[in-house]
Design brief:
By secondary structure, the protein is an alpha+beta fold. The chain has two domains: 88 residues, no CATH class; 47 residues, no CATH class. 42% of the residues lie in helices and 19% in strands. It contains six helices and six strands. The strands form two sheets. Strands 1-2-6 form a three-stranded antiparallel beta sheet. The longest helix is centred in the C-terminal third of the chain and has 22 residues. Zinc ion binds next to loops.
Amino acid sequence: MCLHQKRPCECGRNEAYVFHRDSILPEEVLVHLYCPECAGSVPWDARTMVRDGGWILEYDMEAARFYLGRRLGRVDYSPEEIFDEDYCSWYGLTPEDLETSRRLHEELEPLKRRDIKEYILQITRRRQEQVQALKHQGWRKAART
Ligand SMILES: [Zn+2]
């Protein structure tokens, strides 16, 4: 099972959908989440933090290594690896990807009822455009697709 939850950032102005692959790490492992508006005010610590699209995720590395070690037998995970291997990262490609994709489906709903083939074509094309744009903006998960 994979958990996802909506989590507000430290300043409370933004929210992110956070994903925990295989539910290995509990929610508390993400100790702080900074959006682009509040990320500028925290001192950077590469031992516990990972950056993506202007956001900063700060992990409790001691707890993360404990849980990952217990399940996977490896205790030297870095914050980048935790993010890039999805043990605690975005749900989708960005903090708001779930919302974006929901809106796209909503927008194309009338087309779906009219012309299912065209709908599939459109949704695939629009999604590819989104992913390209995200890659261009430097989002880590988009770069891997
Ligand atoms: Zn914030």
